[in-house]
Amino acid sequence: MNDTENLIKLAAQKQWLVFVFFAVVIGVFYGNTLRNGFIYDDVQIVPNNPYIQSLKYLPKVVTGCMWEHTYYDQCKGRALYYRPVHTLSYILTYQISSSPWFFHLVNLAYFFAVVSLLFILGKILTKNFILSFVAAFLFLIHPINSESVNWIAAVPELTFAIFTLLSVIFYIKHRQD
């Protein structure tokens, strides 16, 4: 191997170490959420929602409202709460496990994706590994994120961030090519 190949290999290893570090810190900061149950909206959205408990309701993901099953009548005649990615996430998660800890684990995975994508975007924009790491790390530990990570009903915020960051990253990559 030549020096260029060694540098590329070292940079890739360094990036993976950052991702492992982020996963560990997320586990330390937010891992206790795995012991939490369903709260507030979570109860109506997950255990009391028949539409996420079976794959036969997959068409409802794009045609219905997540709150149709409730007594709130929030969806009568209109799709007030149309969030298909949100609903699809719950359906797929519920098919694996209906316990609260698994839904919290999915939120932690989404948050890990957001932090990692933020780090990648920072590297693309600044070409500075340290600055990108510090920015993503500060985002990770900032207490304002605790609600979106700990509250199962906050999946839309996390998935929105994932799709937005991916869109920006792919757009920049496209413009660079």
Question: Would you kindly provide a brief summary of this structure?
Answer:
The protein has 177 residues and is mainly alpha-helical. The protein is 67% helix and 0% strand. The protein is built from 8 helices and no strands.
Describe what this molecule looks like in 3D.
The chain has helices at 3-30, 41-45, 58-63, 84-96, 100-126, 129-141, 146-150, 155-176. With 177 residues, it is mainly alpha-helical. Helix 1 runs parallel beside helix 6 (129-141) and helix 5 (100-126) packs parallel to helix 8. The model has no long low-confidence stretch (mean pLDDT 84).
Helix content: 55-70%
User: Which structural category do the helix and sheet elements fall into?
Assistant: mainly alpha
Radius of gyration over all CA atoms, rounded: 19 Å
Tally of separate helices: 8
**Count of DSSP strands:** 0
Mind describing the biggest β-sheet?
A: none
Give helix and strand order, one letter per element, not per position: HHHHHHHH
| Coarse shape | elongated
**Mean pLDDT, all residues:** 84
